[in-house]
Each structure stands twice: as C-alpha cells, then as structure tokens.
Amino acid sequence: MPTVDELIGFTEVRAARDVLRDTDADTLDDMAELVQIPAPPFGEEARGQRVLERFRALGLADAHRDDVGNVLGTLPGAERPDAPPVLVAAHLDTVFDAHTDVTLHRDGVRWRAPGISDNVRGLAALLAVARACTRSALRTRSPLVLVATVGEEGVGDLRGVKHLFGTGAWRRAAAFVAVDGAGLDRVIDRGVGSRRYHVDVRGVGGHSWSDWGIANPVHAVGNAVSELMRLRLRRTPRTVLSVTRIGGGTSVNAVPQSAWLELDMRSESERALARLDHRVQQALRRGVAVAARRRRHGTAGLQLVVRPIGTRPAGRTDGGALVDAAVAATRAVGAEPEHTASSTDANVPMSLDIPAICVGAGGYAGAMHTTDEWYENRQGPEGIERLLLIALAMAGLAG
Q: In whole angstroms, what is the distance from residue 144 CA to residue 5 CA?
C-alpha cells in the first residue's frame, strides 16, 4: 500500500483533496440539515434515512440499511472487490431525547445546536469523503465502506457496531476508522471499556412510625454506595468507578419498598475491569447485608437485584500500518498527533484484534453533550483531508 507521503503526490488524490476544499460549503450545509433531524437513543431512523438518501445521491454502491439501522455504502469501482474492506464509520445518534430542541443557531463563525459536533460533524465528514472520491473518480484497490452507525452513545451500548461485527461478514475487515466529533490532532488508539449496572434493593415497606425497624432499602443503597467508595482503584491501568444515579421511595413518611442506584466502571484493561466488577458485586452485597442485619427481629429481609445495562469491551491498536497512517496524515495537514484513549465505536473492532482507531473530523467544538454544544469551522477541511488520507493509505489506490 502507498504511504501517506506517496499518496499526496498522486494526481487523483490531489483532485479529491481539491474537491474537499472546494465543496466545504456543501459539508456545512450537510451539518446544518442533519443536526436538525432528531436522533435520540433508539430513535435514529429519520436521520439514518436522510444519510441513506445522501449516500445514494453521491453515487455509493449498495447503499442500504441493515437489520438494526446502520446505513452502509461502498465507494464504487474497487480494483479487488473481494479483498478485506476498510470501514470508515460515524455514529448517527445523540445523547439527547426526542423532545430536545435541535434548532441550529448561527452566531458568526460559531454554530450552536445539540449534537452539532458529536456527531453531526462526523456524519458530514462521511458525506464529504464520498463526494470527494466520486467527483474525482478516485478508485481504491480494496473496498472502502462508509457506515453510519446507530447506538454509539450511552444506553445505545455500541449496538450498531456490535451488530456490524457480530454478523461475521465484517470481521475480515482490514481496518476500521471511527470519525467522531471535531478536532485535528487526536488519534484514539486505546478503547476504554465499561460495565454499567442498575442495582435494585427491594423490601416490604411500611409506615415510618408504626413500622419503624423494618429493613429500609434506601439505607441499604446508602450503605452500598459507602462500600463502593471505599474500594481502592488501580492507577495503572487507569480504572474508575462512579455511582451516577440514585433514587427510591414514595413519601417522606413511608419506609420505601424499593431503592436503586446506577453505576459505571471504566478501564483501558479488560482484565482490570473484570477484577473491579467482582469487587463491586461483593461491595453491593456487603452494603445490603448491613441494612438487613439491623432490621427488627421477625421482619422480612431485603432482596438485591443487579442488572447489566451496558458493556463496552476494552481494546487497543498497538502501532501498525493504521496508526502509522494516522500519524503521518495528521502531520501532513499541519498538526501533531496526540495518542489518547476513549470509548467509541472503535472499541468493538479493537477487542476483536481488527486494527481500529478513532479520529476527529476537523474544526473546533465545545460543550459536548449539552444543549449549548457548538462548532467552529476553523481547520475543518483539514480534518476531513486527514480522514481521507488515512482511509486511502489502508484501502490503497487502484492501479
């Protein structure tokens, strides 16, 4: 395969980069349209349908939606259509619910709207790559497949990319590049794994005066949180634990029948994550047992129910052709690469030993995952040029 430095000298690559720069206004138009199509968790269909229409209009081959809603299209004319493909993916969904106002507000160079960077910028980058390649008649050696995935955020639990690689057909991929948000220098080559639980504690409940002394689920949950916070966490590999939500009870003068908490564990190491998971389960049982032991004699105990609500595998891509290409492409557009870790669609292929990274799509952004999220198109085209160079370094050029 040609190196990034070699690619830059090819006529067809120069032509594709020219298209990217000349059609940057079209890329911004795509952002303005897509950000105003709501894509809440498990509600990405409308945005996905529009991306599918754009894939077809831009000339991608076999553009379709799969069983879970991922949208796929292939750059036409691959020289070796049966070769292991290179996948470039951006997620469709946002963290915002269906009732969030997604109206775009322009304040000079700064655009504001929920999801404008994460990940409408990534989706627009997919469309820009498709436009640049088809308009310049650029052909790759191996198939280059563009994918708009569902379920990357939060409760989506990477369901789109898990389905993609769970079917088996894409497990032979030569490389996977996720494009997520803005930025020009990040090369995410380590995937932060996570395990998330909803924890219920249930009792009989009663009156806070006449039934005082029965086992109290809220007390049990408080004990459990205290036990969790006593756990010592590893610094290397970095491993963290957060109790993120808590609730329970029906009235200020009633011993509740139930209480609950939700927690999030993360680590760059699957082994460290498994060890912490085991200790968390023990801590939860200890906390509930303390409350149960202190109940009035002859009254009912407590029931602990721990339910998984999310599992993201950890993984990493240690060097190799893909990381080398990302480093070279970053420097080719005038930035210095920063290797870092995060939780993205790339986690899944990483965990399967498929070379995978995640990069930003250029520009500057802030206030992610809030309704004040913003994007500025400074060095925006350069970010998409970087993405194109990485993809071409892995897929090669025909001829």
A: 20
